[in-house]
Amino acid sequence: xxxxPEQVLADVFGYAAFRGPQADVIGHVMAGGxxxxxxxxxxxxxxxxxxxxxxxxxxxxxxxPLIALMRDxxxxxxxxGVKAAALNSSLHPAEAAETEQALVDGKLxxxxxxxxxxxxxxxxxLLERCRVALFAIDEAHCMSQWGHDFRPEYAKLSILAExxxxxxxxxxxxxxxxxxxxxxxxxxxxxxxxxxxxGFDRPNIxxxxxxxxxxxxxxxxxxxxxxxxxxxxxxxxxxxxxxETAAWLTAEGIECLPYHAxxxxxxxxxxxxxxxxxxxxxxxxxxxxxxxxxxPDVRFVAHMCLPKNMEAYYQETGRAGRDGMPAEALMLYSMxxxxxxxxxxxxxxxxxxxxxxxxxxxxxxxxxxxxxxxxRRVLLAYFGEQRREACGNCDNCxxxxxxxxxxxxxxxxxSCVYRTGQRFGAGYVIDVLLGEESDRIxxxxxxxxxxxxxxxxxxxxxxxxxxxxxxxxxxxxxxxAGHGGMRxxxxxxxxxxxxxxxxxxxxxxxxxxxxKRRRRASQPLAPENEGLFEALRALRAELAQAQGVPPYVVxxxxxxxxxxEVKPQTRDEFAELSGVGQAKLERxxxxxxxxxxxxxxx
Length: 602
Ligand code: ADP
Ligand code: ZN
Known about the structure:
Elements: H1 5-13, H2 22-30, E1 35-38, H3 47-55, E2 59-63, H4 67-79, E3 84-87, H5 93-104, E4 110-113, H6 115-119, H7 121-128, E5 132-137, H8 152-155, H9 159-163, E6 169-173, H10 178-188, E7 195-197, E8 205-211, H11 215-226, E9 232-235, H12 239-251, E10 256-259, H13 265-277, E11 282-285, E12 300-303, H14 310-317, E13 327-333, H15 335-347, H16 352-370, H17 375-382, H18 395-398, E14 403-405, H19 407-419, H20 426-433, H21 439-444, H22 460-472, E15 476-479, E16 485-488, H23 492-496, E17 503-505, H24 530-547, H25 551-554, H26 557-566, H27 571-575, H28 582-597
Parallel strand pairs: 1-6, 1-7, 2-4, 2-5, 3-4, 5-6, 8-13, 9-11, 9-12, 10-11, 12-13
Antiparallel strand pairs: 14-17, 15-16
């Protein structure tokens, strides 16, 4: 035994207290127990194995699925003065041999390894000669077929329980539903009562969903008005869209890089590297981007189309605000998105029962999009967390939309779809409802239908919103393989017969946030300290660049903001800042204090 967990937390990491279940998990692992830790992104999972690794004799072996993730963690640990290294396929054999030697010599406190490497007979034999303090299995949901990112190598990790039964195993993940969690504990020999969970809530993320009307323009307004100069991720539907969005934003003066699987590995790595190392870049990407991106200061995530399901949405938006500072998630979606996902599910080779689940998942997501009250409540309920109070930090809480009895409107629309033969798109059906007499309508004789011209109480735009909500509720189906023709869906009959009520929200598209929010939510800094903050940020960038590391491993934004507010003048004062441990104090205090002292009196 070396230091106590509290001591390590303060001296090495510079934090005052453990959060949530951290203390309990660490205590359990230090006592030799195995556990599964479920904690949302940014909750502080890493410390739960890093602290025991520094308190216990021997080395902690951390299994991680991605090289980028390992590299980030090791870089950050080295900054804290921790002896850590990674072993993966990106290393030169000579480097790998050197790292293995350091491992055998007991010179490392933590070693990060890819599962393939860990499972190789050679490496297992090597470990048997070492003193292993604990195994940490990061992104443990990869072990389960039920999880959303199953990796076959991960499923073989059950060997750890068989061969190293006496060594504690700590599995960590942010996303595991019931069956996934059960699978993980089963495979790793963890007692079911040793599942530690912190809630799913990410209170610092503000959720916002809007219909997509002028996609790019909406995005541009969002970034310009609310997140200028900040780092963000824009998820796009396709590779082509990612490229176009990046080029367009850049032309509009917002520096933006593309990322998708169609790019060469080098180009991808280069863009990812810039995103991590430079301040305030935007990444326009397909969903290929993100797994293993540990950048803590992503201030917004925008979806330019529907994500695949709630799990994907939670995970992708979860990449915002890992540092706990305010961040925003914006989703823009349209009727075509819904149709496309439905079509995709229908066209897949999956067994019926799997397809049914996928449809249900889509319905849950659409319910979230169309809800008129607190979104966070719906999101958390999906993951099994019931909440009574509204959150006060989502679009619906901040500006509640109006809801109306849309039964009559729904009946008119559905009936018009039926009478026009269930083959026309929303635009045409709306034309008929509005009583247009276009050539097409005359040609088909639809001017003589009983539904012609019965929709004058709503504008075209309102009808579009109604149509979208009907599609979202499965009352209407859209055929995108054809020409977007619509037909009646399950439940439409009941509505037409007047057996079912339909409540709809009024057109949800709202203009940019109210002007009165002058200070941006994501920049919680007193105006008089902004100059100092920028000077500290510049020094951080310089120090990071000189070492070839991302700025946030020098200090997180939270530490920098505290520095600008507190203005420490001495080393002792500097050491009080959250996020300043011994190593960073030695390495950086004087430079930052220098900037603070040089500040002209205001
Ligand atoms: P996760 O792996 O759960 O996504 P991290 O371990 O990366 O989260 O931690 C997220 C952020 O919270 C990091 O910036 C980390 O330094 C910080 N953090 C974790 N635990 C504490 C704590 N007890 N006090 C202060 N900051 C903490
Ligand atoms: Zn809310």
